[in-house]
Fold each of these.
Amino acid sequence: MLKIKKTIYDQLLEHASREDPIEACGYLVEKDGEIIKHYEMTNTDQDREHFSMDPKEQFQVVKEVRAAGMKIKAVYHSHPETPARPSEEDIKLAFDPTMSYVIITLLKDSGDRIKSFLIKKGVVENEIIEIIE
Amino acid sequence: MKIKVNGEEQAVEGSSISIAQLLKLNEVENPGMVTVQLDGEFVDKDNYEATQVKENNEVEFLYYMGGGSV
């Protein structure tokens, strides 16, 4: 289960909308079992159907999060034109088995706007998101 | 010897270990999709076999993060 603060949830939707039409991406950071912060990352692909993070920026954030006593729990990205479900490419490129993979859709009539998945060796499992105050 | 991997101390047998071996030791299944820093410097993927990690070195690795909607 991914426990995420309502403020962060809303900020993810805002980030995805702001980056539209390209895909937004970032990290979700956990402390004491709750997502309390998000890091907006640069989509180096600058593309509406793909995203890649910049390793240099990744290292900066990872070290900053660790120094603050927090942990990166999830990676998120947006699907501007498709539902919040992992694409074939998402599944193929989900290399980190320790991560939750969160997808935000900008489609307003496709069910939940934000969903989380555990993806290990090509096997996708839905992860419940609990929104907390 | 003792080294640091992703901020945590790790004890490794011997006086050196290659980046490739270290990634394997840390259960990385796709080393080609991992970026590595040794003492803050990026290590070229082509040099994972040749680059040796020694006592008190600090190694950071992270997975490529990317995807798409199609």
Amino acid sequence: MTSLTDRYLAATLRTVPAPRRAEIADELRASIADMIEGRTAAGQDTAAAEREVLTELGHPDRLAAGYADRPLQLIGPTYYLVWASLLRRLLTVIPALVAVAVGVLKATLEEQPDEAIGAGIGAGVQAAVQITFWVTVAFAVLERTRTPLDLPAWSVDQLPEAPAERDVTLSDTCASIAFLLIILAYLPWQHYRSWVTDADGANLPILDPALWTSWLPALAAVLVASIVVEIVKYRTGRWTWPLVGVNAVLDLAFALPLGYLLLTDRLLNPALVDRFEWLREDGNTEMLTNVSVVVVAAVTIWSIAESLVKARRHRR
Amino acid sequence: MVSDDLLRTHLQELRRGTVVVASLIALRRPDYGYALLQRLTAHGFPVDANTLYPLLRRLEEQGLLASAWNTEESRPRKFYRTSDDGETVLGRLLDDLAAVQTSVTGLIEGVER
């Protein structure tokens, strides 16, 4: 059986660069023998002394890293900030672009719209994982080769504009605009592709097609105006009283017609109601209408109240 | 009350560079790893074996230490000694150490005044 020292040396030298291995082996073996001797001279048993000495020398990989002058971290302080900011920049844009592109291709070219969202999300996640992996690998290699990056030094000119004054963040604005765009896109989308078909297999719009000549264009206009308000709000950086007013008018201009149409049973396509027995049953339509009206009212009140609170908070 | 861990961290930081200085001074008289370790410990520079052995190796690669194998005794050992370059660097390090001591003294006296 090989001795503990032999096993320790083998474990340490395994990761030391080959050209120096033999010499480090000889020296380390002599040092370990010296250390053991120092302990046995004090009256300790050889086996126990060997164990203690090797324990003191610690993990073989750590010792080998010391000999090879190898970092014990994946990405050290020299590269960490660059790695983090590069990753942040790539991850905020590319996965989303990939997801949208794949989703659109799936829905249009492959004509499988029902799988578009799943495929898009899957592709986006994969893109994020791949980006993270390869960027990290690249920086881990840089860390080990100690390649200087020669990036321009940080200067005070790079300081961002004081962000404290900003109540409205870019992410909030983007989320709101995306939400409005989705609703806006849904209006024509449901007309052509609702995935509900009539007895002949033709597409059945969800909303009453008659509304296209009356209310729907008006609602679409309100949505467009709301997008403009979001942009103005972002540029202003906070809620002002005029913005609160315009926002409230637009919220009501959307909610009141919607509530009116719901309560007078004019929103849903009559052909759609005919097609589904459940909708024709007594009380079901009423319940659906009431729930919808409550949701619309709650969302509208929430939106107006939030703008009021934020505008007041800023004034104080 | 300052925790022992915190204190140990600060002391380690303070001591970090002094192992190099102490080794360069001690190795004006050639010695091998374990004997150097004991000499340093005896002179108030306690240092871990797994820190010192790789450090000697690195200082040798940087040209601050020269080495030679001694095969006269029963066990062949690698003896290190401070090279001319090592002596130059040591001079600078000692100057700086003295400057730190002077500055600290000045600062202490300045505060007391």
